[in-house]
Amino acid sequence: MAFTTSKNRLTAKPRGQSQQVQDLQIWRLHQKIVEKIEQDPSLCAQIQQCLEQRLAAGQVRHGEYLYWSCLLLEVHQKEQFREGVLSMDPRICKYRRRTPFVGILTEQERQQILYGE
Q1: CA atoms within 13 A on the CB side of 33
Q2: What is the largest CA-CA distance in the chain?
Q3: Where do the DSSP E strands lie in 1-117?
Q4: Confidence of residue 16 (pLDDT cuts 50, 70, 90)
Q5: CA torsion sign, 58 to 52 to 88 to 34?
Q6: Residue 33 pLDDT > 80
Q7: How far apart are CA 112 and CA 9, in angstroms?
Q8: Boundaries of every domain in the chain
């Protein structure tokens, strides 16, 4: 259970609610990532390399690896690619939490999305 402060008091916050907030933030980051990949599909090579490294290191399960790898092959079918990355299916939300799309956004882009800076 997570805790938040409210007028100098700690109040219990159900873990599910904080997970939903985190998932929404991650979803918003991935929305921008999809836009950048649509503009420059060559970024998929970087993502695939990350997947390969994680698979070799045992940091990603085979099903998750297959999901992202197959989705990267669909990058030119923009609607399918977008739906695949941004799906609200619980399994895909879990995959996004361990995203292979590292290094696509700049720190400034991340800050702007997360904090509106």
Answers
A1: 28
A2: 51
A3: 2-6, 9-13
A4: confident
A5: positive
A6: yes
A7: 30
A8: 2-115
